[in-house]
Amino acid sequence: MKLLPATLFSMTGNGSSGRRNFEQLLKLVLFVLVFVLLSSFAFQLFMKAEGRAENYEWFDGFYWTMVTMSTLGYGEITFNDWPGKLFSVGVMLFGMMSMLIILPFAFIRFAYEPWMEAQNEGRTPRRLDPNMKGHVILTNFDPVSRALIRKLGQYNIAYALLVRDKNEALRLHDEGYSVAVGELDDPDFYNNVRVEQCAMVVATGKDEANANIAFTVRELVDNRVRVVTLAKSEASVDILELAGSTNVIRLGELLGQFLARRTIANDAMAHVIGHFDELLIAEAMVMGT
User: Fold this and answer.
1) CB atoms within 10 A of CB 203
2) Using 50, 70 and 90 to split pLDDT, how confident is the model at 288?
């Protein structure tokens, strides 16, 4: 039941692609129609050459063409001379080609492909539910985002992973991620993913892309939506803050400081990282070992 609406929507809607599909289908139908009319006219000419034209009307030619093209061949109307028989073979071959090539192509192009597109649109939406709020928007898929998604899942916080490429979005969706397809520098796309109702926007890509994302988000919402960006260089920190980032994190520097503390440890011999009842669990330092 969903096939017909999806097909009609694909052919008549969806911008230039829908119009192009409809135009191609119309050309295909017109081509077959012109062939049927010409064959009906040729039928009268061949019958006239055999001296039997007065026995058949124009509708008989149309009927004969349709029966021959469909390869049913009832046999009540036939040619006696070889030119008419050769013409019959040509019409029959065109009918076989229509059934074996043109009709399957038309079905795939104008029915199956639009249906698949409609299914893929449902798996990779371009907009979120208008009632969705308090979610986290992620603009890049990398190890940081994967770790954050796992944490969000532990606390049952919804998220939307923004992806440019539809094929990549389909792959991520099949892996269980919640995705939305669109351009990361398009303000309308952020409106579609309800940026004004989200809790946080996290940009973990390159510094230039992160600055563009922060600036785009700040054009749409005020400081009530937190924008967190990563920075690789020291010079990018000020730029990202001016673009509208609430928090700029230099992950490489933090990781280096963490490893340095674990290695040097100053005066401590160990760091307590947890406990089990009265049993303390600690990390021993690398220095001196």
Assistant:
1) 27
2) low
Give yes or no for residue 93 having a pLDDT over 70: yes
Token pair 């969806």: residue: 14
DSSP string, 190-206: HHHTTGGG-SEEEE-S-
Query: Higher model confidence: residue 4 or residue 192?
Result: 192
Amino acid present at 282: A
Q: Is the pLDDT of residue 198 over 70?
A: yes
**CB 213 within 8 Å of CB 137:** no
CATH 3.40.630.30 fits 3-123, yes or no: no
The amino acid sitting at 217 is V
Structure tokens at 287: 């220095």
* Per-residue buried b or exposed e for 121-159, using 16+ beta carbons within 10 Å of the residue's own CB: eeebbeebeeeeeebbbbbbbeeebeebbeebeeeeebb
Distance (Å, whole) CA 194 – CA 202 = 14
pLDDT tier, 257 (very low <50, low <70, confident <90, very high otherwise): confident
216 residue type, one letter:
T
Asked: is 136-249 a CATH 3.40.50.720 domain? The reply is yes
Distance (Å, rounded) from C-alpha 245 to C-alpha 242? 7
Do residues 194 and 130 lie in contact, with contact meaning Cβ atoms separated by under 8 Å? yes
Q: Which residues of 248-268 are buried (b: 16+ CB within 10 A; e: fewer)?
A: bbbeeeeeeeeeeeeeebeee
Residue 222: pLDDT over 90: no
Strand partners, 271: 283
17 band by pLDDT with thresholds 50, 70 and 90: low
Domain residue ranges of the chain, discontinuous segments joined by +? 3-123, 136-249, 260-289
pLDDT of residue 286: 65
Radius of gyration (Cα) for the chain, nearest Å?
A: 34
The pLDDT-based confidence of 4 (bands split at 50, 70, 90) is: very low
